[in-house]
């Protein structure tokens, strides 16, 4: 089987997920369809005097010990859970031996406050020179905060082949990881790979930085109501964490070994601009370009798209720009669009991968997840956002949008198995 450009079709044979709604695809998906929110007050660290005190937290077993886990450790733990679930469903390879490479999307990392405070206590002085001296020969700190270290450990654990690729493209990271995996299979470099996005950035420093950008919702009194994509009273996104993994395979190879095909990644499109560190260019060229490129890569006309899984962060500007892009691409006949972030929050580096998983499930179950907290329509948002309640629908092709800070944009087209 080949696509319209003569390339191998890329099938998805296994998926795994961790979200603020639960561990595993089944729990996250069922609660998503039920319109439940995973947003709650942060209890992992003090939030006194912070403007935002809520997030989509994932509580790991290690959290019960009381010592806060750093972001890279959280990423590795959640990624491993998602990969294990995806591999179990795909039933490929043997334990500890996967016949292809790993593409890991994860956030940038740096030494965080807890280990810095620990070094300051050891040094007896809050200076960088003293902290650097105390850190000498601390191999544990170096390995924890080595960006590529997470991918290396996951690769060793699951026995993937070749050098693991770790990347970050802001909020498009998870989709970028999938795109790299798809292209590797299309080039014939491998017949199977693991692509995933994971993020554990709900810690004090990241929360403060996003708050200083005025990007976060401050609706702290009702956490479950805080994420309000496309709604008139939206006031920012809600930080969250999670992970999603996909086993990607050459379609013919997957069929030959008797694998169950969940769906296809039939198109990938990317487009970037250099307009601003956090904002997209108001002319929308990069957003439009990413959407157009994904459809062209899939060989589809806009009218063939059944549903759009929105980037839908709930910030005033992003939702306005996505509405603009939708109307420019689809005109008056835009398909339904909804935002998973209304329920699980914005999982940042994991978002593109999680939303690809949910797009595949929408095709599998012929059901669209809702955009919750849609109480008052914004007159400037003229789309069918599947308000508040999931609905049955005929779903063949889904466009999944990921628009990142710095103008890094990736869109994916997920499709059902060929008839």
UniProtKB/TrEMBL annotation:
SMART domains (UniProt xref): PKS_KS (SM00825)
One cellular-component annotation, GO: cytosol
Record-linked CDD domains: KAS_I_II
Xref: InterPro entries: Beta-ketoacyl_synthase, Ketoacyl_synth_C, Ketoacyl_synth_N, PKS_Beta-ketoAc_synthase_dom, Thiolase-like
Biological pathway: Lipid metabolism; fatty acid biosynthesis
GO molecular function: 3-oxoacyl-[acyl-carrier-protein] synthase activity
Keyword annotations: Transferase
PROSITE patterns in the record: KS3_2
Ketosynthase family 3 (KS3) domain ranges (all copies): 7-416
Top-level division of the source organism's lineage: Bacteria
Pfam family, one: ketoacyl-synt
Gene Ontology BP term (one): fatty acid biosynthetic process
Family: Belongs to the thiolase-like superfamily. Beta-ketoacyl-ACP synthases family.
NCBIfam families linked: PRK06501.1
PANTHER family: 3-OXOACYL-[ACYL-CARRIER-PROTEIN] SYNTHASE, MITOCHONDRIAL, POLYKETIDE SYNTHASE-RELATED
Protein name: 3-oxoacyl-[acyl-carrier-protein] synthase II
Organism: Muricoccus roseus
